[in-house]
Every structure is written in structure tokens, then in C-alpha cells.
Design a protein that fits this description.
This protein has one domain: Arc Repressor Mutant, subunit A. It starts with 38 loop residues before the first strand and ends with a helix. The longest helix is centred in the last third of the chain and has 11 residues. It is mainly alpha-helical. Helices cover 32% and strands 5% of the residues.
């Protein structure tokens, strides 16, 4: 995955990653099959349903999806996520599925 960080950005995303460039890990949840109540971002309490709704309302990029849902914007994601990582890959997967 190529990751081009952009300095000084105020969007809160920390990176400029495109879902088309991402190689998703094998341990990623099957977001297409999970119910809407499944928590995608444990840190902010954002569910799959909230992310799908934001995508339907026009969130077509990682930064916009993060702004519209609040997911992936806290500093504790890696600590609170059961997979021990940020939810950014999950958000990108949701964009790949639902956008």
C-alpha cells in the first residue's frame, strides 16, 4: 500500500490513501456480510450502518467519511480496536464495497 501523508492538513485523516491502492489484510471483517449494528470504530462508537449512511449521503473519500462519521479521528483507535489497529482500513473497505 502506498501512503502519501499530507502535512498541515486539517481534515483529521492523516493520510491520502485511495481505496484502489490498498491491499486489505486477511483478518479484516467481512463488512458486506455483517449487520449494520456492528461497531466499525470502537473508539468513536461508529457502526457499519452509520458508515453506509454517510457513503449514501456523499462521503466518497476517506477524509470525508471520517469527518461525516467521526470514525478514525481519535488517538485511541489502536488501543480500543480488538484488532489492535486503526479503523482506517475498515473505512476504506466500506468505501470499496458501498461507494
Amino acid at each position: 500500500m502506498e501512503n502519501h501523508c499530507h502535512e498541515g492538513c486539517s481534515c483529521g485523516c492523516g493520510c491520502d490513501t485511495n481505496a484502489d491502492e490498498v491491499v486489505f489484510p486477511c483478518d479484516m471483517p467481512d463488512w458486506a456480510a455483517l449487520p449494520g449494528s456492528t461497531v466499525l470504530c470502537p473508539c468513536a462508537g461508529v457502526t457499519k450502518e452509520m458508515v453506509v449512511k454517510a457513503i449514501a449521503q456523499g462521503a466518497d473519500s476517506l477524509p470525508l467519511l471520517k469527518v461525516m462519521t467521526g470514525a478514525g479521528r481519535a488517538n485511541q483507535c489502536r488501543d480500543k480496536n480488538p484488532l489492535g489497529r486503526s479503523c482506517e482500513l475498515d473505512l476504506l473497505k466500506m468505501l470499496a464495497i458501498y461507494a
